[in-house]
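Help!! Second protein's tokens look totally different from the first
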Amino acid sequence: MKLKVKFSLSATLLVVFILLGVSVCFFLAERRHLINQIKENQINIVDGLVLVSKEYLITKDQILLLNYINFLVRNKRIIYVLFTNPQGKILAHTNIQRLEEKDKTPIGLKAIKTNKLLIQSYQNKKGKRISDYALPVFVENKKLGVARIGFSQHELNKMMKKTVTQTGKRIFAIAFVVLIIGIFGSLILAQTLIGPIKKLVYGAKMIGRGKLNTVIKVNNKDELGSLAKEFNLMARQLKELDHMKQDFVSGVTHELRSPLTSIMMYIDLFFKGATGELNEKQKKFLNIMKNSSKRLNSFINDLLDIAKIERGKMELVKEPLNITTILRETIQLFTVQADEKNIIIVTKIQENIPVISADQNKIRQILNNLLSNAIKFTPEKGTITVEVKNNGEYVQVSVGDTGMGVPPDDLEKIFNKFEQVKGVRNRIAGSKGTGLGLAIVKAIVQLHKGDIWVESIMGKGSTFYFTLPKEENDSFDFC
């Protein structure tokens, strides 16, 4: 899972948990507030009845009290309203038939004795839950009666459920909007953080591929910005070290080439009899020196080629070429080596291969390297297959062998400088190579604006493919 996805999911989950916690807390707080508000509203209704009851006691206007009671019972939440004297005699009631009766119910008797607000909950004969609010009525500090109101708990719960549901919907809507904003915010924040990291990863890849002039542009003023600055500083230092290395290699190789040329020239003079006739032992030692000098000279040439490539100074002299002719000539050069190991070289050349635009010497260098490797890694009585195809705008050449193969993890690495497949050096005879050949081949192909790759199966062999662009003004074909 990518870091951006991980960060976005983590931030979103954090927002969800926070929203869930806040929403639950807010919902419970709203519910508690609603319960307190309903209770306060009920007390206010009872207070209103107490005030009207006082007015009735002072003015003896019973109609005023009855009208107010009739007004209260219009509220569906109120079951009954009554007013009793201190002895419990009912002076006003929603049920007219109970007037002048004495309230002998347990709730009524308890309400008569109270001097403060009394709230009692009970279930009536019809199974309805009722909250009874009783409040004494004082006139000039003298208790002259008790005002009582019975509220339907079912209606109260119904109203509270409706209000709570509406509140929940509002909370959900707000939470949903906040969640969407949080998700977008987390994505923006993730992009803000991941963007510089992606640039750093890209820069690391480029430096890993040898492009040491890579510069990371990160405008952040935070730790990521500091990391990018340190990365660019590291890249500059690596580039300086690479220049120093190139200068050193170039200087050493040039210094080695002159004395090596002299050594090789004097060896040839020995063989030509410049110092007299040689015996067999002397010829043997001189042959060893000659072969060693050739390998050293080849290594120096590879180092010089790599230095030119890295400095961008390798020049191509392009011309229209018949690659089939060059290929046949190159194969002829390796026939003796192939015969020594009983290796069969099979050629498959498609008809009417178009002309390519390329540097002849560099193309020969590519073919020499690939064929040399194929013979080196192909066991005795093996087969090397060389194939040329017309592939649209390109000519495709492949060199396959029946050797040991290349592990999947090494398919890309083998084109790197000084890179060789693990365990190969101990399994092949003769020269082990320097690990520069394929790096040079890849660079030459890319300079020609072509492509190169390898396919391999362990134990069955490898096939190297490369493409070269055909001549744009191709007006004829070679046979």
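Here's the second one for comparison:
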Amino acid sequence: MIAKIHSAIPYGYDGHLVEVEASTSKGLPAFNIVGMADKTINEAKERVRSALTNSGFTFPNRKLVVNLAPADLQKDGSYLDLAIAIAILTVSNQLLPKDSQNKLFVGELSLDGEIRPVRSILNIIETAKLLGFKEVFLPINNLAQAQLISNVNLIGVKNLRELFLHLKKEAIIKNRIAVVKNNKTVVETPILDHIRGQEFAKRALTVAIAGHHNILLSGPPGAGKTLLAKVAANLLPNISIDEQISVTKIWSLAGQTNDIISKRPFRAPHHTASKTSIIGGNRTAKPGEISLAHHGVLFLDEIPEYQRDVLESLRQPLEDKVISISRANQKVTYPADFMLIATMNPCPCGYLGDPYHECTCSRIQIENYKKKISGPLLDRIDMNISVQKVENSQLVANLPISNQDHLTAKEKIKEAMARQYSRYGKPGFYNSSLSSHQVATMLTLTKDAKNLLENASKRLNLSARSYFKIIKVAQTIADLAGSGKILPEHITESLSFRQRS
């Protein structure tokens, strides 16, 4: 007799169906697993044997072979433990084949039969839904995250014995609704009203977030560049359900969480981070920081301090909003639609142009410092802002601090994004997402605005990419102002946001 049980494993950003086949035959008692299984799955033999025995079941005293199909698909992790156990119960006639028909099983087994949670459950549930499975049995601790996927009958299970009695219809598991964990720890994060002065920089940050534009903040130490970047995390709009699913999938794949991501990500890797940790990779092609920042912000503080090859590797995902990772055994494409916020000093010592401190850097040192960020990378940054130091006397003026400016900016950002959704009809599609062709066909500039942009383009020797980025930023400014067309004043302000020192 051969038993066939269905399961699934994550495969890149998606999932892949795995058919677990079990067969017994005459011969000395043995338990073998075949089908491109790695060490983790081979160790499942001991986990499954112990879980079955300790749950009160009989382990077959015959030669037992478990095949994981397709045999040419590399499989790792503990996702298939539960399916292997059900296959063994079926082939040994403790369960009937009809008991597991049109059902998918996933979960790790402990030695006493408890079903433990696994990573990347959303990939597996989406695969089951796509393939039309009527029921999915999964660890109860994965239920909260899995319930983000609608129109799938999810049954959270505590242990192997409970699942057996449910399949035999002796003790039906009632519908369980997982309780989403709330982090009660209150962390005070900065808001726009906490920043003294810097009206130009705060306006630029509002425009950048409203249109999802990449922004570089340049200025001396203590000017408030890092504080401005952290404020961005509070100005981001609420995350939608579809975006929640996408972000949670990536974080689960990276082993960052088994819970639901309810806020837009704000990732701030240290400048010593490797290219693999930023882009993604290693042996299993895990997602990196740019994918963990999907639908959120990637913050690179003191961007010239990052390795040159790390920065250059950002050029393609900044343009395409995805990253493809190729390894010997697989090629994976992850989404990487993030907003880049970067900061830098004007020179190595930080005081170039500061009226209160003398710059100690030579011209060669300054040039070499600026060359750490290549022209093509700078060209992909929509807004380049100079942040000047605020007088100390202004830092404690006009206390106490309210949150009115922050709330006003957040409401304007929300309204501007609503106008973008009305214009493009795609959630999560911003002015910055437009291609050059879409800019030319979908956005409207007045005649005076066109003439102003043409003159500025010739005078500043703008590249084609910079030319279109100025229009896209100007459209965001128009959206914030509630204007249906791009006016000359919008072009003027957009040009002021592309300073080059």
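Reply: Different proteins will give different token patterns, so don't panic. The radius of gyration is 28 Å.
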